[in-house]
Design goal:
Blueprint: E1 9-10, H1 11-23, H2 27-40, E2 52-53, H3 68-83, H4 91-104, E3 106-109, E4 112-118, E5 126-127, E6 130-133, H5 140-149, H6 153-171, E7 179-182, E8 185-187, E9 195-196, H7 202-209, H8 216-225, E10 234-239, E11 244-248, H9 251-260, H10 269-273, H11 277-293
Antiparallel strand pairs: 1-2, 3-4, 5-6, 6-7, 7-8, 9-10, 10-11
């Protein structure tokens, strides 16, 4: 339940929950999350999930569009559960999601049409000249493992090109939550704020998890985090002029800074229980990423 968004649940949260249940060896929770997911948001005609479930609405699902990162995490969690933990899971879940990620969520890069971009959703903005991208959706480790396991080389290409994309963005000194990739380069998105904030914080998390702690995008976000002018806080939101718009002392956001700086974030039940959904989840994921990123 996303306490920062009025108690909704979403595909991102279900994917994170499945990964964390597998990483911490909890098959009962894994099965409960998967059962809820199937009953409530795995309702599209493809293998992807509707991104948002709202308990305050009578129809519960106000938007049936998917969010690619949630689907990526769910597929990866099932692959990890079967291969890494030896749990019995439905083998069709990861295979079918991988198929539909390839078929519905990749688009040619307008700057280099032989390369593919990971779109944020199957119905996201896409033309030959302009593609909407969320840079924080790139978890190279997951893309490569799914691509190798299900004969989907396009996902491996997407991981490779995604790391190049992040490098190109890092060279500008600004890693936004959302950006449009055009034939002429990067432009602000038309339907999202052009800022580096809560989405972009996941970029170093996924790079370190993928064994890339020295990627230049990691350093850009770390510089933002440690630019805070409040004691005990990190900067979690800057605008496109580099001005700080949000700072936080939540341990989960500090965990991202620790990970990006090469450390291992601490983890305790009390820490997790004291935080809202998002920083608590980031802290747990950062702990797993530190452990696995060195392997």
């Amino acid at each position: 339940m996303d306490t920062g968004q009025n108690g909704i649940s979403h595909s991102e949260g279900q994917g994170y929950g499945l990964i964390l249940a597998q990483a911490f060896g909890d098959p009962e929770t894994f099965d409960r999350i998967e059962a809820w997911t199937r009953s409530h948001i795995a309702n599209r005609q493809d293998a992807l999930m509707s991104w948002k479930w709202d308990p305050s609405r009578s129809d519960s699902i106000p938007d049936w569009h998917n969010a690619t990162d949630g689907d990526l995490f769910r597929a990866w969690a099932h692959l990890r559960a079967a291969l890494g933990s030896g749990w019995r899971t439905d083998p069709a879940v990861a295979a079918d999601i991988t198929r539909d990620l390839v078929g519905l969520c990749l688009a040619p890069d307008p700057r280099a049409p032989d390369e593919v971009l990971l779109m944020p959703g199957a119905e996201a903005l896409r033309t030959p000249r302009r593609v909407l991208v969320n840079p924080s959706y790139y978890l190279s480790r997951a893309l490569r493992q799914l691509g190798a396991s299900y004969d989907a080389p396009a996902l491996i290409r997407a991981a490779d090109h995604g790391e190049t994309l992040l490098g190109d963005l890092a060279a500008t000194g600004f890693l936004p939550d959302w950006v449009e990739v055009t034939t002429d380069g990067f432009v602000p998105p038309r339907d999202h704020d052009f800022r580096s904030a809560y989405d972009a914080l996941r970029i170093p998390l996924y790079l370190c998890w993928s064994g890339l702690p020295h990627h230049p995008a990691n350093r850009v976000i770390l510089r933002m985090l440690i630019s805070s002018d409040l004691p005990g806080h990190v900067a979690v939101w800057i605008d496109d002029n580099g001005q700080i718009r949000g700072q936080s002392n939540q341990p989960g956001f500090h965990a991202i800074a620790t990970l990006a700086a090469g450390g291992t974030p601490p983890l305790s039940a009390g820490n997790i229980a004291s935080q809202p959904y998002y920083p608590a989840t980031l802290q747990m994921l950062a702990h797993v990423a530190a452990r696995e990123g060195r392997a």
